[in-house]
Amino acid sequence: MTYRVAVLAGDGVGPEVVAEARRAVDVLGLAFEWVELPWGSAWYHEHGRMMPEDWEDQLAGFQAVLLGAMGDPSVPDHVSLWGSILELRQRLDLWANVRPCRLLEGIPTPLADYGPAEIDILFVRENTEGEYAGVGGRSHRGLPGEVGIEVSVFTRAGVERVVRYAFELASTRRGLLTSATKSNASRFGYVLWDEVVEEVAAEFPGVRVERVLVDALAARMVRSPDSLDVVVASNLFADILTDLGAALQGGMGMSASANLAPDRPGTIGVFEPVHGSAPDIAGQGIANPAGAIWSASLMLDHLGEPEAAQRLLKALDDVCRDGPRTRDVGGAATTREVGAAVAAALSAG
Ligand code: IPM
Ligand code: MN
């Protein structure tokens, strides 16, 4: 079986980190067909869009997208992202964004009292609605009474599927699910969210569930990250919490994500490091490829290659522990040197 992967390396450091993720996967000896799609900000300047109009047709037949990063200072962020990542997530109905927040050995964390044994959280982010529904508008433009409205949309079906998936994941881990909410200030969306969590909980007697206000949860991630196992959160809450989580695991360069439709196994998933295009360091060859390599491991899981996924993750683990490391995580190595070390660890193992 040949896996067909669309490579959307994208902007900034995207191509640099994706190259290392590909190199590592290629060492595994599985059959991959990588198809590079030149979409992103450069494409935008040529065609007036981040992706071609028929992007959905062009992605048909791929099992996965490996995405680097999207966004460049020359295109307004809301244009570049609604024309790429956010469009992919919503239109492909990739409703779960899974983000492991695990501190690897050898990687410095800003938390003084904690190490790899205590920082292992799995975030499950609702990925198509909530604060990212894309509902709203502007009026009275330029007038003193100008209005900007951004509506959060929570549907029972949308909340239920992501919450159920988070329960399933929690039942395979330490059996604790923490639901991030804000139902003290919100009277509608998060109250619905809480009710759905409570209902779905009845299906999982083996999982302990707790409801935590998102502000308190942010503090708890810093004070006692070891008290958390799986966290399920809305689109915006998980966006914010996973940047905090990335900081706990050593920085944005370490963090990986999988955009999935778990109810449609065998269909396309999008795998991307959590960091952005980082234009400030693009082209210097110093970006950390760990998040991209880790995302490729999540992709292998999605493709039904759990052993290869584990091998890749272990190689990354080994390289983080023994070096080389990029400078954001305390080393002095280049992107390529880290990628080469991961590939070498795979060849040796
Ligand atoms: C992320 C990113 C995106 C998000 C941006 C780039 C739109 O921050 O994947 O976390 O907000 O989801
Ligand atoms: Mn984010």
Total beta strands:
12
The biggest beta sheet, please?
10 strands, mixed
**What is the percentage of strand-forming residues?**
15-25%
Q: Give unreliable regions as ranges.
A: none
Which structural class fits the helix and strand makeup? alpha/beta
Name the strands of the widest sheet in spatial order.
2-1-3-12-11-4-5-10-8-9
Mean pLDDT: 98
Radius of gyration: 20 Å
What bound compounds does this protein have? 3-isopropylmalic acid, manganese (II) ion
Helix content: 25-40%
Task: Compute the number of helices.
Answer: 12
Shape: globular
Quote the distance from N terminus to C terminus.
23 Å
Order of helices and strands: EHEHHEHHEEEEHEHEHEHEEHHH
Q: Could you characterize what this model shows?
A:
Strand 8 (176-181), helix 7 (189-201) and strand 9 (208-213) form a beta-alpha-beta unit. The chain is globular. The chain is of the alpha/beta class and 349 residues long. The strands form 2 sheets. Strands 2-1-3-12-11-4-5-10-8-9 form a 10-stranded mixed β-sheet, sandwiched between helices. The two termini are 23 Å apart. The chain has helices at residues 14-27, 41-47, 55-59, 77-82, 85-91, 156-171, 189-201, 214-223, 235-248, 290-302, 306-322, 335-348, and strands at residues 2-10, 31-36, 64-69, 96-102, 120-126, 130-139, 147-153, 176-181, 208-213, 230-233, 256-260, 269-273.
